[in-house]
Amino acid sequence: MTTAAPMPVPFPFAAIAGQPQLRQALLLAAVDPALGGVLIEGPRGTAKTTAARALAELLPGAPFVTLPLGASLESLVGTLDLGQALAGHELKFAPGLLARAHGGVLYVDEINLLPDALIDSLLDAAASGVNVVERDGISHRHAARFVLVGTMNPEEGTLRPQLLDRFGLCVRLRNLQDATERQAIVRARLAFDADPQGFRAAYAKEEAELAAALVRARALVVDAAALPYGDAVHEAVGALCIAAGVDGLRADLVMLRSARALAAWEGAASITDDHVQRVAEAVLLHRRHPAADAAVAPPMAPPAPHRNPGDTPARDAGDGDWGAMLPEPVGIERVKPLRPLISAQQAAPKKA
């Protein structure tokens, strides 16, 4: 009889260093799962999977569910036993991964490689907290409140703008260029691999504080009377979204909810403009219109002064095309006229 190998213990969330934007985005999504999840873009080896697993451990009794690339739509949303329903028996529902992830973290690696139908169902459930399965006029619905964490490597393709917009937050990770910071992270990982339990024990107090803070913040967010949005917050959010040239109003709603989640996480008395500014980039990164970047780009250099065709081009410091050759006049050569293949008399129709 073979025994199952023990599951590896996760790296503690409190020990994750060098990725402050990633930590904040994941914590905000855990405070308010209705934000729509977090999309993490970045190269391999930037702690994307490690951070997602560590987040699930901060939620009490939270499952960590992984959606494989080869999963079918039925395995994700669940299936209905239509035969039993038509025979008059009780409706039988076989739960899928969305049901298993309720109350926890649903992790999707390389989400950009999934079929659009699966991504649509994922994002619908992540935003609404409800999964609806319909088959031949028979429907079943169940709660599916989870933190959606999707990762992707931009070198392997991207998502359509319509799908990108439905992710609540987006974080773009980059390779660390600071030698001291890289060495500290590598040393921490080596220490964890050598003695996982001892390493986790060293961060047990910080992990417990993070978990308790999440419980308090989640209770505050579900209280409709707590942390109302003031006029100054609405004005700040509207100005940022207009400047970014976003489509629709989803960015405004997500930014307001994100600022409220951050205020709840920090135990603030009210939502301030500072909260809005600190969540704005994660909300706008994947929604910003390209024209908005062009609007803030530096002005173009003034046109070069006019020169006559016979002048020698001068080399100016600001002229990037100083080595180009000026156009020269070209003579026109006469071409021998062409003779028609048939004469005009032969081409005329004969009289009857």
Automatic annotation (TrEMBL):
Classification via Pfam families: AAA_5 (PF07728), AAA_lid_2 (PF17863)
InterPro entries: AAA+_ATPase (IPR003593), ATPase_dyneun-rel_AAA (IPR011704), ChlI/MoxR_AAA_lid (IPR041628), Mg-chelatase_DI-like (IPR052989), P-loop_NTPase (IPR027417)
Entry-linked Gene3D superfamilies: Magnesium chelatase subunit I, C-Terminal domain, P-loop containing nucleotide triphosphate hydrolases
Domain of life, source organism: Bacteria
Annotated SUPFAM superfamilies: P-loop containing nucleoside triphosphate hydrolases
GO molecular function, one term: ATP binding
Region named Disordered: 294-331
Domain named AAA+ ATPase: residues: 34-179
Protein name: Magnesium chelatase
